[in-house]
């Protein structure tokens, strides 16, 4: 939902970039310069992606067009073999009141009986309407074989709260980080990752408090409960997040990929098992043993397994 929240003093940011944006680090991505609701950049080394909600005047609330753009750039980052980490954040501050937001969820002004509505005159196939597009984004983040870090400069409310929950890591502004699960206030509910997975992170009691009472809590409380990984000074937020990304990039890409899917498998049931097992199978294809099995089949002979012991 569109969450106003308390104002925070701060100068007006340029409409296409955040006050925290460091232009010396980031460059535009070819083919994605005409986005309206999202900004998309890669760092100069081409290893880290920065994706940001760009509707600070409504606390970075999303509409269907926002989510379509968000999905497109996330999927582009997923398919880029050089990108290892995605920083997901919100541009700001608001030109109206100086307030900051990561994302305040779905824009309630355009919520209809079957989901959020496209703008008048924005043509979409009938099959593209009547669905909660943001859940597709959640799944994309969850199953992306790369690390996604929520960089939270202000409000994470409603669907924005759920979005940070599904990210692999979360870093928030000490001064402006604010969290609130507004679902029950507006007749909505996230019955998947936003609630059940959140309870895995912080425990059942606090998760139910957050949803049932819909009270706001700050970055310090989020840190104490395990809802986020770090709370840092606002001015340092994007710098610290970029440093975390750089540290992750010093690790083995395959190990990070398998670790993410291993963590996911516990909560994702058969789907999580399939994703993890699929990656394990792909790794097995690279072994001499698997090559022997393939070659024996193609050569129409019995495979020779003798060089490969039953290890213990």
How would you explain this protein's 3D organization?
Helix content is 37%, strand content 16%. It is of the alpha/beta class and 312 residues long. It has a seven-stranded mixed sheet, sandwiched between helices. Strands 5-9-11-12 form a four-stranded mixed sheet. Strands 6-7 form a two-stranded antiparallel ribbon. α1 runs parallel beside α2 and α4 packs across α5. The chain is globular, with a radius of gyration of 21 Å.
- On the 0 to 100 scale, the average pLDDT is 89
Percent of residues in helices: 25-40%
**Main sheet: which strands, in order across?**
1-2-3-4-8-10-13
Apparent shape: globular
User: Helix count?
Assistant: 10
Secondary-structure element string: EEEHEEEEHEEHEEHHEHEHHHH
CA radius of gyration is: 21 Å
Report a brief summary of the structure.
By secondary structure, the protein is α/β, with parallel strands linked by helices.
SSE map:
Blueprint: E1 26-28, E2 38-43, E3 48-53, H1 64-79, E4 85-90, E5 101-103, E6 111-112, E7 115-116, H2 133-143, E8 147-152, E9 155-157, H3 159-166, E10 169-173, E11 178-180, H4 193-202, H5 204-213, E12 217-218, H6 219-225, E13 230-232, H7 237-248, H8 253-265, H9 269-284, H10 288-298
Parallel strand pairs: 3-4, 4-8, 5-9, 8-10, 9-11, 10-13
Antiparallel strand pairs: 1-2, 2-3, 6-7, 11-12
Helix pairs in contact: 1-2, 2-3, 3-4, 4-5, 8-9
What structural keywords apply?
alpha/beta, 10 helices, four-stranded mixed β-sheet, seven-stranded mixed β-sheet, globular, 312 residues, single chain
